[in-house]
Amino acid sequence: MNLSDITLPITYDWGREHALLFSPQLAQRLAELHAEYGRPDCIAMPRALADGRLMLSADILTAVEPGGWLHEMWIHADMEVLLPSVEVVPIAEALALMPQPQEP
Amino acid sequence: MPMNGRLLRPRQTIHPEAADWANRVRTNGGSVSGTTLKAVDRFVKAIHAAGIRDRFYRLNLFCGNSDGNLNAVRTPLYRGPSLIGTQYGNTTDTNSNFVAGDYVETGAQGGLQSDGGTKYLNTGLNVFNAGLAADDFHCGSYFNSALNNSGIFLGTRNAVTGATKGVQFFPAFATSGMFVRFGGLVNSGIEAGALAANNGMLVGVRRPTGVGFRNGLNINAPSNISGAQVWLTSTDTPDLFVFNTNSSNGAGVSWFFGRAQMYSVGKGLSDAQALAYYDATQAFQTALTRGT
């Protein structure tokens, strides 16, 4: 499933159960969009997974709605490129690819 | 005509620090209810009455109305040891990945909820540059539900790998208790201080020995400062993260899982000061119906 299969708006609870996975190249493009249209005090900061992809919790899609901190950036993104390039998976699948947290 | 009795009553005034916070929230685009402002005002007055205001270099009570940009909850109450004087760090906590649904102001679900994997705040506070010393330091927070297998709530360190210096506050790490590591990253405070429960107000202190508090009471954990190292440059303490650990100005390394109702950073606390801090905090959290 990719982002083009998702109907917005999503619910927060659905978002907490899913993750968005994408390439470093797309992350770079999103960072450029953020620099142009985003807020300096609210940043989408993807986390690197063990397989080299990057992830965000899908609940971040709630912030693309009007009034949300990602809205301006979202409306300026090229949806034809963005939507099919972002894989949507259950959060457990992404957690399995996360480096384990450090222990004392 | 008799004088109206109300004219003789002293007018209730909001403490300048509470008023300043509410003004900053509004300037940032947020809003605050009268109930919350009253609770913040009482907290501020209690902290001043206890004579411990100068202990706090940054404190955020995670309150104010929810909105799409999380404007209120990211506005710290304190940004320096006094309202007048140098203020440290970002004017608001910079948000990485929190969304409006992660924050509820009141009730049992009140507080800011992380996911243990992607969400954190950047305070912009470099503790070395602010003049804080590793052996006169505290970090604290309030957790109204039990922490389970959580990571570092608040931290900074001097490298991604091979780090030797920084701040690492594990309020309740897994089943092994509280870890307070201010200065070095091991043996610089408390290692595995036993907790009666993994919730409530948890505070780690160095004064210079390591001390831990739960709900204002000393947990009597053995101090271990055999490996303590001091902070020598600002690169030893990149800007402090909450719900994560900063390793080099932007690279988080250890995400925290749990819901928190506040955080504070500053100088060390005596037992009496820690108890006064707890009393003020507990009254505040109770007022917002999100206390333990």
Compact overview of the structure:
Chain A has 104 residues and is α+β, with helices and mostly antiparallel strands. Chain A contains five helices and five strands.
Q: Could you tell me the number of beta strands of chain A?
A: 5
Number of domains of chain A: 1
Strand residue content of chain A: 15-25%
Sheet with most strands: strand arrangement of chain A:
3-4-1-5
Number of strands of chain B: 18
Distance between termini of chain A? 38 Å
**CATH class bucket of chain B:** Mainly Beta
CATH domain topology of chain B: Jelly Rolls
Percentage of residues assigned to helices of chain A: 25-40%
Count of alpha and pi helical runs of chain A: 5
The succession of helices and strands of chain B, N to C, reads: HHEEEEEEEEEEEEEEEEEEH
Order of strands in the sheet with most strands of chain B = 1-18-6-11-12-13
Shape of chain B: globular
In what range is the share of β-strand residues of chain B?
A: 25-35%
H/E topology pattern of chain A = HEHEEEHHEH
Question: Mind telling me which CATH architecture of chain B this is?
Answer: Sandwich
Compute the CA-based radius of gyration of chain A: 14 Å
- Estimate the mean pLDDT confidence of chain A: 94
The oligomeric state of the chains shown is heterodimer
Low-confidence stretches of chain B: none
The helix content of chain B, as a percent range, equals: 10-25%
Observed structural traits:
heterodimer, A: 104 residues, alpha+beta, four-stranded antiparallel sheet, 5 strands, B: 292 residues, Jelly Rolls, six-stranded antiparallel sheet, six-stranded mixed sheet, 3 helices, 26% strand
Characterise this structure:
By secondary structure, chain A is α+β, with helices and mostly antiparallel strands. Chain A has one domain (3-95). Chain A contains five helices and five strands; from the N terminus they run H-E-H-E-E-E-H-H-E-H. Chain A has helices spanning 12-16, 24-37, 71-75, 79-85, 91-95, and strands at residues 18-22, 42-43, 47-48, 54-57, 87-90. The longest helix of chain A is centred in the N-terminal third of the chain and has 14 residues, at 24-37. Chain A is globular. The model of chain A has no long low-confidence stretch (mean pLDDT 94). The radius of gyration of chain B is 19 Å and the shape is globular. Chain B has 292 residues and is α+β, with helices and mostly antiparallel strands. Chain B has helices at residues 16-27, 34-49, 271-287, and strands spanning 56-60, 94-96, 103-104, 111-113, 120-122, 137-143, 154-157, 165-173, 177-184, 189-193, 200-206, 210-214, 217-218, 223-224, 241-242, 244-246, 259-260, 263-266. The termini of chain B are far apart. Chain B has a single domain, classed as Jelly Rolls (Sandwich).
